[in-house]
Amino acid sequence: MTTDASQAPGERLGLPASGALSIARIWRRIGALFIDYTAATVIAIAFLGYDPYALPAEAGLTLFAPLMVFVIIQVLFIPTIGGSPGHRICGMRVIALSGGWVGLWRPVVRSLLLVLVIPAVIWDADLRGLHDKIAGTALVRSR
C-alpha cells in the first residue's frame, strides 16, 4: 500500500473506494446519528423521566438520560448486529480493522469518545474519526 494523497478514503486501509465495505461518507453518518439520538431521546422521555423542556437546574441527572441511552444503544447493537439501528438503516456497519468480531471493548471506547463530540469531528484522510482510530474500527457501507 502506498500513502498517496490522491487515494480514496479507506484505500490506505485496504478497503475499496466505493460500494460495499467502502468508508461511509458524512451524510450517511449524520443520518444514522440523527436516527440513533432521536430513538435515545424517545426512550429517555418514555422510561427515564427526561423532560426536554426542563431547565438544567431542574433536570438533574435526567439531563444526561438521552446520552446514556445513546451509549447503551451503541454498545448493545454494534457487537450484536454490526452497528446501531441508525447505522443499519442507513446501510452501514462497524468493522474491526484487525478483522473478525468487533468485540465488547471497541463499542464501549468508541461510544464514550463519540459522546464527547470532539474525537468524532477530528478526521484523518480516510474519514475515520479519532474515536474510530482509537478503537481500531471503521464505519463502512454494508451495501
Describe this structure in words.
The protein is mainly alpha-helical and 143 residues long. It has one domain. 48% of the residues lie in helices and 7% in strands. It is built from 7 helices and 2 strands. It has helices at 26-47, 56-59, 65-81, 85-89, 105-115, 118-121, 130-135; strands at residues 92-96, 137-141. It has a two-stranded antiparallel sheet with strand order 1-2. Helix 1 packs across helix 3 (65-81). It is elongated.
The computed structural class is mainly alpha
How much strand? 5-15%
Termini separation comes to 24 Å
Rg, alpha carbons: 16 Å
Tell me the major beta sheet. Answer: 2 strands, antiparallel
- Shape, please? elongated
Number of strands: 2
Question: Any chance you could write out the topology, listing elements then pairs?
Answer:
Elements: H1 26-47, H2 56-59, H3 65-81, H4 85-89, E1 92-96, H5 105-115, H6 118-121, H7 130-135, E2 137-141
Antiparallel strand pairs: 1-2
Helix pairs in contact: 1-3, 3-5
Top keywords for this entry?
membrane; 2 strands; cell membrane; 143 residues; 48% helix; mainly alpha; transmembrane; 7 helices; elongated
